[in-house]
Automatic annotation (TrEMBL):
<dbReference type="InterPro" id="IPR036249">
    <property type="entry name" value="Thioredoxin-like_sf"/>
</dbReference>
<feature type="domain" description="Glutaredoxin">
    <location>
        <begin position="13"/>
        <end position="67"/>
    </location>
</feature>
<dbReference type="GO" id="GO:0016491">
    <property type="term" value="F:oxidoreductase activity"/>
</dbReference>
<dbReference type="GO" id="GO:0009055">
    <property type="term" value="F:electron transfer activity"/>
</dbReference>
<dbReference type="InterPro" id="IPR011915">
    <property type="entry name" value="GlrX_actino"/>
</dbReference>
<dbReference type="Pfam" id="PF00462">
    <property type="entry name" value="Glutaredoxin"/>
</dbReference>
<keyword id="KW-0560">Oxidoreductase</keyword>
<dbReference type="InterPro" id="IPR051548">
    <property type="entry name" value="Grx-like_ET"/>
</dbReference>
<dbReference type="InterPro" id="IPR002109">
    <property type="entry name" value="Glutaredoxin"/>
</dbReference>
<dbReference type="GO" id="GO:0045454">
    <property type="term" value="P:cell redox homeostasis"/>
</dbReference>
<protein>
    <submittedName>
        <fullName>Mycoredoxin</fullName>
        <ecNumber>1.20.4.3</ecNumber>
    </submittedName>
</protein>
Amino acid sequence: MATPASTPTGKLTMYTTSWCGFCRRLKSQLARDGIYLHEVDIERDPEAAEFVMSVNGGNAVVPTIVFPDGTVMTNPPAKTVKKHLESLEAASE
């Protein structure tokens, strides 16, 4: 699997575009629960676009989320993101 371009270690990263309604909705749902993320616009970052395509069968599908453990999810519901983050926190305790 490819490694994420522009992904800071230890942060939740969302690959997005400026026009993506699903991205805006997911970001606001997570922010309501105090979950903030690093956003990378794949239209402005060619390496990020290549990464997103590499994990989505050649398609530039957003939102693509990369978790601190390297797990990647494409267009996940906020509930799934929260559940995975909780499992990562529990595993680190």
